[in-house]
């Protein structure tokens, strides 16, 4: 069995600051928590940015550049910049930071989804910032838009610079979208397939979903892919554990779940990395270093990014 790549998604764009005092918001917090996650064993750091004043999602390159160079200098981890952005962001905005940096890896959502966190809105009164409740309530009527034209635009914009993609697949149909772009030569192996399970409004994290994702990817891609997965919220550790047993790499982080165990908030991203690492160790699985992850994924190397 291949070594397991641990990815860590440190902050994301869906959770809001009131939900956890440990969610990193400022560039310094994002940098410190990402560096600690890398030291704990994360080979890939999946990164979003937030407004330093009130923690709302932002795509501004100047905010990314307040923490990316620090992470790059302090770790050997693969920097993976999100192109998903956040609700309401234009495609142009979603791509700005990645275009500026030309990173080794970027996320690439392989289809449109309906993230549905709006039932959480009444749970957190009072909110720290006035934008949070309307933001959550607004998810009842938004889509995370990723048309085939959007996907092609991201590939054709970033691919020529050697950036490869973490292809986020929220549904079985998204795997077929990967296959369609691969058949046309726009995506080339090895494919990093990230199964995203348990997000409200998308595919469940039921064990049958994990199995279905794996068997479908096997049929479509054979040996030409590296499989990774994560479970959102309470599904995080069980889904990662099941996937690892079946041969997957794993992703954890406060973007995906704010908790370390039932009812207990995680105090950092590194705490989640250390927990999944303990589970992987108990399963007798070997953890990939950043250098090994680069080799497995065919990445261009940390010296070939604009940092």
UniProtKB/TrEMBL annotation:
Molecular function terms from GO: 3-keto-5-aminohexanoate cleavage activity; metal ion binding
Q: Which cofactor does it need?
A: Zn(2+)
Name the domain of life this protein comes from. Answer: Bacteria
Q: Which Pfam families match?
A: BKACE (PF05853)
Query: What are the entry keywords?
Result: Metal-binding, Transferase, Zinc
Which InterPro entries does this entry report, sorted A to Z? Aldolase_TIM (IPR013785), BKACE (IPR008567)
Protein name (record): 3-keto-5-aminohexanoate cleavage protein
Which species is this UniProt entry from?
Sphingobium nicotianae
């Amino acid at each position: 069995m291949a070594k397991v790549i641990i990815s860590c998604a440190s902050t994301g764009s869906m959770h809001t600051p009131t939900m956890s005092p440990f969610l990193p918001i400022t560039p310094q917090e994002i940098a410190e928590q990402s560096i600690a996650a890398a030291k704990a064993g994360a080979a890939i750091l999946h990164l979003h940015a937030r407004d330093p004043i009130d923690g709302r999602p932002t795509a501004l390159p100047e905010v990314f550049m307040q923490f990316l160079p620090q992470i790059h200098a302090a770790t050997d981890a693969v920097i993976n910049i999100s192109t998903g952005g956040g609700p309401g962001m234009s495609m142009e905005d979603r791509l700005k930071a990645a275009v500026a940096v030309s990173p080794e890896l970027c996320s690439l959502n392989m289809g449109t989804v309906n993230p549905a966190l709006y039932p959480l809105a009444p749970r957190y009164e009072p909110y720290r910032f006035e934008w949070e409740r309307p933001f959550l309530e607004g998810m009842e009527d938004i889509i995370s838009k990723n048309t085939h034209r959007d996907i092609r635009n991201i590939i054709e914009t970033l691919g020529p610079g050697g950036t490869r993609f973490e292809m986020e697949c929220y549904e079985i149909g998204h795997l077929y979208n990967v296959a369609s772009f691969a058949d046309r030569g726009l995506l080339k192996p090895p494919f990093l397939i990230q199964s995203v399970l348990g997000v409200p409004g998308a595919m469940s994290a039921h064990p049958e979903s994990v199995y279905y994702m794996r068997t479908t990817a096997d049929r479509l891609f054979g040996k030409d892919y590296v499989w990774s997965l994560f479970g959102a919220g309470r599904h995080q550790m069980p889904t990662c554990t099941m996937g690892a047993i079946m041969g997957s790499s794993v992703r954890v982080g406060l973007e995906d779940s704010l908790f370390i165990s039932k009812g207990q908030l995680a105090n950092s991203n590194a705490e989640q990395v250390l927990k999944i690492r303990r589970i992987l160790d108990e399963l007798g699985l070997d953890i990939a270093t950043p250098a090994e992850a680069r080799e497995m994924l065919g990445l261009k190397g940390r010296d070939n990014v604009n940092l």
